[in-house]
Amino acid sequence: MKTSFFLRLSIISIAAAIILGAFGAHALENILCPYCTEIWEKSIFYQLTNSIGIILLIILQKQQIIKEKNTNLFLLLMGIILFCGSLYTLAIAKSILNEQHWIKSIMGPLTPIGGTLLITGWIISIFHIKNK
Questions:
Q1: Half-sphere exposure of 125 (CA within 13 A, CB side)
Q2: What is the share, in percent, of the chain residues with pLDDT greater than 70?
């Protein structure tokens, strides 16, 4: 996949995080319990910081500081989707659906898988740094 693909998706992810932040603050203000609001806000934080991080990695690739291999970008993007997506779903499920067990059993395992993908993506990025 081309770097421009990851750049576009990262920018979309930033916009989505802003939309979800506003949605959480206004539409879900009286729906989410305090604990679920914290989960929602954590998800927004991780989505924003990792999306900006992907853009930073792309800039470093273009400046030839990091090798242009997109494995790390793919892992980071999948990590954002799985980690943050599962947190958003779990926050809503706990507040609105009274934590339906089947949702938690499906989404619960996705959170650590997504987190592991994020960590792995960042660690792989270390090995992509060029020795100058």
A1: 22
A2: 96
CA distance 5 to 10: 9
pTM recorded for the entire structure: 0.90
Torsion sign (Cα): 67, 65, 72, 8? negative
Output the six-digit token pair for 108: 């619960």
Element (H, E) at 111: helix 110-127
Which residues have C-beta within 8 Å of that of residue 108, sequence separation ≥ 6?
86, 90
For every residue of 27-90, DSSP letters joined together read TTTTTS-HHHHHHHHHHHHHHHHHHHHHHHHHHHHHTTSB----HHHHHHHHHIIIIIHHHHHH
Cβ-based neighbour number of residue 116 at 10 Å: 14
pLDDT digits (tens, 9 = 90+) for 94-128: 877 766 666 777 777 899 999 999 999 999 999 99
